[in-house]
Every structure is written in structure tokens, then in C-alpha cells.
Amino acid sequence: MWAAIFGLSALFAVVAVVFLWSRFCKFGIIGKISGGKKWLRRLLGLIPMVVFGIFCYINVINTVIVMLHMALYWMIAEFVFFIIRKLRKKNPEISEKKFRPYRVGIIVLCFELIYFSAGWYMDYHMWEKDYSLTTEKDIGEGGLRIAQITDSHTGATFDGEGFSSRLETVQKTSPDVLVITGDFVDDDTDKDDMVRCCRALGEFKCPYGVYFIFGNHDKGYSNYRNFTSDDLREELAKNNVIILEDEYVLIDDRFYIVGRQDRSVPDRADIAGIMEGLDPSKYCIILDHQPNDYDAEAETGADLVLSGHTHGGQLFEIKYLGQLMGANDRTYGIEKRDNTTFIVSSGMSDWAIKFKTGTKSEFCIIDVAGK
To answer: Rounded to whole angstroms, how far apart are CA atoms 128 and 187?
Structure first.
């Protein structure tokens, strides 16, 4: 699937380059400088494309994202202006001799600047997302406050100190328990930052401790990272973080936390087998990085399933693409199936794309009130 996505993105990028080059040639300022010479106008129109090329060398993924968006919205804007001109019965052609301002281009460039500036801000900052749930089960006086963080991908938008600072914000909500639902680190995470992040978890204060499951990025996709997954396990254990891999714990004889291995693990256990023998009268929370086993998890009668992975859809245009393709059961937010509540968080950060235009970075606070 990823090969197809990257292949189509490369094809669309080539089309976007040709289209954008033809549009930049239409700007009045280029017409004035070229003196009406078409060959010079076309040559000058390449200057913005050279700039794109420089940025592509620095960060190819985000440059391609910007180019594809720009080409898409430029096409839409030109179509809308074409219809307007037709309705007004005016000539849609721009006179090259008068070098009129290319209004469509100016509007699109201004829109893109605002759009991606907002997307960058939504990605690099973090908000609190609150959920309030109820249960007929006895979870103790005062209920239960769960803090969920996910997809920090340390090194993408913040380092170890940045993670520590964000965790201090979570600490202020005074949760009873903290859960990390995967992609804590990434291939580009530095060992010093990983160690600092683990130490921050060790410094976190909550009555029932900190629980961790692995995501698809935590163990690494390559061998160039300067630490191993065993190093990560060691640092987490050193800081009293409990790792759950297809296993569960009963906490204070009040509620269960069930931690699943990531879907990418070939020998991941079935959720029904993991939960066999659990007391159904006690509240049960499942941690599952990828939200794509909803039917099986609902059949177990679990009360709450917490996931990440999707980054909330990341970009407005592809927000529900994974859901439509069947890769995920849900992209973001809350859903209830039978007696099970499912929550998918957009996460604290991202992987490679440095913009969130369809969502924003967050941590979740889930308050569960008992009978």
C-alpha cells in the first residue's frame, strides 16, 4: 500500500511541477521583466521551481506536500474564476501586453501561506482533549481520571526537553494513571532524547503509575538509530514504566489495563485470548496503537479502547482516507460499539509531515464516573 501511495505521490508531484511552472509564467511581474518575450517569461517562471528544488533537497516529503496542495487549490481557483468570467460574459484570457495582476495566483499564494502557517502551528503546539464517560461498574469513589499520550515521535517536532515540558502540562491535570499508546520514539530519535523522555516519565506523579505499549515506529524500521529497542525497554523499566505486550494488569483490584502488541507484530495474540479469565465486573481498558480491531475488541466486552497511530488524519484532504481504505476503523475521536467506547487521539506530534491541517496535536484526559 505504501509503495502505491509513494508512487502516486511522485507521479502527481511531476504533474504539479509542470502545472505550477505554467502558472508562475502568468504573473504580471514576470511579464514586465521579460518584456513580452515568451522564452524569457518561461525561463523566469522556473525561478520558483528552483526554490522548490532547494527545499526538496532539505525536506522532500513536506516540499511535495506543499506543491501538491498548491497545484490542487490553484486548479480549483482557476476553475471557479473561469466560471465567474463566463457568467459575466467576459473574455477569460489575460492580456499579455497589459500585464494585468494575476489575481488567481495572488489569492492562491496568500491562501497557501495562511493554510500552512496554521497547519504548522497546530502541529507544533499541544492542546488538551477531554472526554467524560460513565460506567455501571464500581471503579471506586471519585471515579477514574486517565491521561493518554500517543505518537510523540520524539525528534520530529520536539526533543527530549520538549517532551518533558509537554508532560509537565499533562501533570497539571492530576490524572490517576498515565498510558502511552505507541510511537513514543522514531527512527530519527537520538538516544539522549530517548533517555530524557523516559526520565520524564519516571518523574511523572500519579497514583497508579505509567503504562506503555509499543507502536509500529518504536522498535525502528532501520538500523541507523543510535539505540536499540532493548535500550528503550531498559530505560523505560529503569523509570518504573510498565510495558504491556499482549498482557494485562489488575490495578488496585478496581480496573484492568490490557496492553496489546502492535498490529505489525506477526505473532500478536488475539484479544479474546489475552482477556480470557478477566473478571467482567471490573472496568477494563485496552491499549491498542492502531485502531483497526474494533469488532473483536467490542466482542470482549471491554469498556474502553485507547489508540493513536492515525495522527487524527493529519491533513484535511486525507483525513478519512485510511478509514475509507479499510486500514483503520476510525481516524479520530470517540465511537461506541455495543458496550465498548473507542477513542482515537491525534497524538502529541507527527512522523514526517510537519503540518496538521485536519486536526491538531493533543493529549487526552478521560474522566470515568462510576456508579
So the answer is: 27
